Amino acid sequence: MFGWTGKLLHVDLTRGTCERREIPSEILHAYLGGRGLGVRLMRDYFRLGPFEPDMPLIFAVGPLCGTNSPTAARLACVSRSPLTGTIYDCSAGGRFAWRLKAAGLDALFITGKSPHPVVLCIDPVRDELHPAQSLWGKGVKETVAALKERGSVTAIGPAGENGVLFANIMMGEGNSIGRGGLGAVMGAKGLKAVTAQGDGVTGIADRERFDAARADVMRLFLASPVIFGELGIAEYGTPALVDLMAQRRMAPTENFRSTFFAGSGNYSGPAIRKECGARKEGCYGCPIQCKKASAAGEPLPEYETVNHFGALNGISDLHAIVRANTMCNELGLDTISAAATLSAFGEARGRFPDAAEVASLLADIAYRHDQGELLSLGSRRVGEVLGKPELSMSVKSLELPAYDPRGAYGMALAYVTSNRGGCHLRAYPISHEILRKPVPTDRFSFSGKARIIKIAEDVNAAVDSLVACKFAFFGATLEEYGELLSAVTGVEYGPESLKAIGERIYLTERFYNCGNGFDRSHDTLPRRFFEEAGSAGEGIDVPPIDRARFDEELQKYYRIRGLDEDGGFGDRDLLGELP
Amino acid sequence: MRDQISKYTGKLLADRSACADGIAFAAQDDALITAGAPDLAALAGGTLSRLNSLALVAARPSLPFADFLIARAGEGEECIVPQDTETRTFLHDIPFLRKKDLAGDPAPVLARLLGNRKGVIVEGIGIVAVGAITVEQAFINYSSVFHSTFVKYLQDLLADGFRLPGEREAFEAFRRQWLRPLFAEGLDFAGALSLDKNGILAEIERVGRYTVERGLVDSFFGNISVSAGELIYISQTAASLDELKGCIDPVPADNSSTTGITASSELLAHRKIYEQTGARVILHGHPKFSVVMSMLCDRKRECAIKDCWKECPHVRDLGGTPVVAGEIGAGGLAKRVPPVIGASGSAIVYGHGVFTLGRQGFGEAFAAMVDVENFCREEYFRQLDITKA
Ligand code: SF4
Ligand SMILES: [Zn+2]
Ligand SMILES: [Zn+2]
């Protein structure tokens, strides 16, 4: 077999066993890897609660991992989110994914609950659990440093140990498995970290075809202003979006009360470069290198993070924002949900936290001290406890990132149809509504958006299963990635067959969610977006979203997806139809 | 979506790339709609309904070049591989279906081909192109295929001469009737551009329209900019030159803001050209004869370089206009064009297109592009006539 290793490591933490098993090749061909494989492997478990010991925590790489396919040294982590209750996956870069593959594995399947804290250590000769009492309670940096002899590390910080509902799993180089709180799932299992090393190579079925496809991808990267343009993300990282979102009047400000923040220039791409001496960094094996680090090697915040610790909390001090980002990384907290929860809390009590208070609240959250006890539950639960549920700017309990849906109607629809809740990375319509890739669409129109969102969700489910980075698709398309995949695996794939795989994955996720009680009533935005206008300016008006038109497009979306009016499957036994 | 369909039907008619009675579109929202010539519309609908995409165009090109390319292709070949940059970068190759292989309903096999590519050619039927997320995208892909087949056919013809019955006559008709004289006379240009924003935007929009109306470029192939003190006003990426209203980014010359992340991928080339030449405006487009002629090199036999389009270090010459190699965007074009364009006011990029300058305004740049294309057109026919004789 080329591309895949065909092996999964089954770890039972309750019994303390590690066992390598075969993955049937039909499953790999039909779900690729990453998100798709993880979601498929959840089939018998999706009804379990996120903290039940038998709930699996799955790490899965893809068939391109281990080759020099651009942006493909990534993995997906899949489980059920304690924050949202939905099926959950997150894609992350870093050497760990590459080393896991080199250790001969396509996936890690971890169940059970260890009686004492443990570290899982993987290498080609032995897969073992080691006691980790001494690491429990330690920050991410120290944990990673303590384990670095054993290869690449992925670990949780205090937030994960303490069950913060938006705790991340952190990769050794600073990448994160973010948003849905999978760090808390890992913590509940008593698993502090996983290390991986290996020297296996991923076989390529057709080297010549692979080289040609790779050259095609690189040419498209060069031709994409968003990627390699002189103002693009390779130069400035995702904070390149700060100025653009300000100009487009869609930068969420003060808990989404407005959409323009006068101080945003303080944390724009050029400002970060100037103030922090930003240098290029990025996921292992990625030619884009969109992440930035300070001269001292400290990871600098991404667009969503600067906006949310910035505008969303009314803070314009760049250094305070960078500090908040560093703290979250160290504690193992999701930056978007942390900042958005603070913002909802701020609005509810009538005062947004200032820079100094942010730092102390973040520590309180991770350790669940004082107010941190409540805040560790995320904005929805905070809003409910404070009697102001409407102030949680979330969908399915996942806090919205830094793209105001009043400024991009595809984004509005994408937030509510995302299977993991309020996330920008599923359909990712920002690509065409704002960045004009692959072609521009009218951001203030719902016309055609239901179909566009559906197609993009399918495409991105395939991308997350390859596992490639979304940013690659500001230039390349599934045509070129299909070529890479065919060349690597020797199995023929093209855009249409990949989209079909994506659709299969998307529907499976939705089916799991419906099985857990989700329906149309969860596919909606906070009231504010239908009732209050955003900030006008530069000739742009940002009216509230027309609820009737929104509902109409959502119904269209259900029809296109083959769902019933309630967004469900009726009597259909979807899983019975699928491989 | 019906309004989009009529809009892009209109564009296909205006740029004369498709036959008036041979255009059809299909689009699907929650339901499938089709419009246009009935046979083609049925084919378009049947094909699109099998695809996870939003729109599709099926149209008969106004020139028989695509069919000629198929007829000239070898027995076992299944696609044509044009050498121009647009195709190389965005389409890679263009699959085709032969008439003799079209038994029954072609929609399923078409859908299978379009499942892997943006556009295909069906012999005797036309060009079928898909738009993953918009009707416009289907139109763009049609135009790209039309452009590619035009360029490739002209290249092949120069290399190998006429081979098919009726080919010479059809080509003569193209030469005498389809092609129209290209000229800049009768257009209004602001003499010397001021620094006034509104004036600049209006001028860019107007010039963009002119390039398309005069048949100099197909609508979305190119970009335009004006240098104004601390700012460069430049058309956005993926913008149609004839519809630039609201699609022009002001980019600070010192990169103090990144709003221009949506600007054309040639921003860097434009910026360097301004730095090195002091020009006020730049016009860039892909006129077809310039693209064809730029790829002719009499040293191909002895030259060790095979990736000429990006690696060729030589500066060649076409009627006084320098020709250089270089890839789009952050590729080599931004390095190779600026040093050569100042002296002549124009430059051609291998397999890609033309950049021209105006020291005051667009009059000069537009005239220069017309001159380059006219020179290349004449030179093409001169060489063709020699090889035929
Ligand atoms: S583009 Fe950025 S996020 Fe994506 S793989 Fe590369 S470095 Fe990582
Ligand atoms: Zn060009
Ligand atoms: Zn040469």
UniProtKB/TrEMBL annotation, chain A:
Coiled coil: none
Segments forming domain Aldehyde ferredoxin oxidoreductase N-terminal: 4-200
SMART domains with a match to the protein in the record: AFOR_N
InterPro entries noted in UniProt: Ald_Fedxn_OxRdtase_N, OxRdtase_Ald_Fedxn_C, W-dependent_AOR
Source species, domain of life: Bacteria
Pfam family, one: AFOR_C
PANTHER family recorded: ALDEHYDE FERREDOXIN OXIDOREDUCTASE (PTHR30038), TUNGSTEN-CONTAINING ALDEHYDE FERREDOXIN OXIDOREDUCTASE (PTHR30038:SF0)
Protein's UniProt name: Aldehyde ferredoxin oxidoreductase family protein
Species assigned in the record: Geomonas subterranea
Automatic annotation (TrEMBL), chain B:
Metal-binding recorded as keyword: yes
Keyword Zinc: no
Keywords attached to this entry: Lyase, Metal-binding
Span of domain Class II aldolase/adducin N-terminal: 202-380
Domain of life (superkingdom): Bacteria
Name recorded for this polypeptide: Class II aldolase/adducin family protein
Organism: Geomonas subterranea
Lineage: Bacteria, Pseudomonadati, Thermodesulfobacteriota, Desulfuromonadia, Geobacterales
